[in-house]
Design goal:
Number of domains: 2
Order of helices and strands: EEEEEEEEHEHEHHEHHHHHHHH
Largest sheet: 6 strands, antiparallel
CATH superfamily of the largest domain: Regulatory protein AraC
Number of helices: 12
Structural class: alpha+beta
Oligomer: single chain
CATH architecture of the largest domain: Sandwich
Distance between the termini: 42 Å
Shape: globular
Helix content: 40-55%
Strand content: 15-25%
Length: about 290
Amino acid sequence: MKPKELSRKSPAHKSFSVSQHILPRFLNIWHYHEEYELVYIHKSAGTKFIGDSISKFEPGDLVLIGSKLPHLWLNNEECSVRSNLIAEAWVIHFHPSCLGKDFFYLPEMKKIQNMLTQARVGLEILGEVKSKIIKTLSFLIDINSDEYDKIVKFLNILKLITDTPDKKKLSSLSFIDSHANLSGSRLDTVYEYVFNNFKDEISLDQIASLANMNSTSFSRYFKQTTNKTFTTFLNEVRIGFACRLIVEHGEMDIAEIGFESGYNNLSNFNKQFKKITDKTPSEYYRSYSTSES
């Protein structure tokens, strides 16, 4: 599937857009857009792909996605099977120049501009500040709220994100730089295919053909542009998914988790898991359980 550059432009009479998405599942497309995106997950759970970061998402998560940063929200399978489950997110989209071309470059906006620069890799907002931001988001969603007050509340949200130390960077800069240079390129097709088919066997020849290259040329190209081999990337995607299964379904057999993540060989699954996380699957589950208790 061809990745998409989507438009998230605000209506002509709005500086930024605020929406409440209530759907059977989130948009299952590896995509990016020029607008920044602040997402609060109200309902649903699954795996989020932000650049080259792969981690679970759940109700209460709050993420700021930078301009042109590729991302995908992949719901748990039961969200597609059980009709009584829904995916709900509160979202703000805003262009870098939504309040004027140079607004965020004013001296008074320097800290916010620095935060927006950091957001190019994606920021997950953590800690107590989330409740304040979510409360303000609910005000913005209210269609009866005063339009002037909405601008003030929007800036307050950006200030809260700027001031809190409780935020975590998601993607790597190397991925961002490679995507900035190669947006719309053959690599986009590769990412899209892997994110949607990582559970299946994927050969180097198969993936190289998607990029219209032979396997040797593709391997060299992928390493030069991402600073990692394709095999490493594929294993990171699979192990990221396995981590979510361990956290959400700790009762599952390790071999079953490996199989669901694209590994037919338990020994290889354990080896790759240890290599990427520095823990065995059992150690990873115990460490997560301890941190949650």
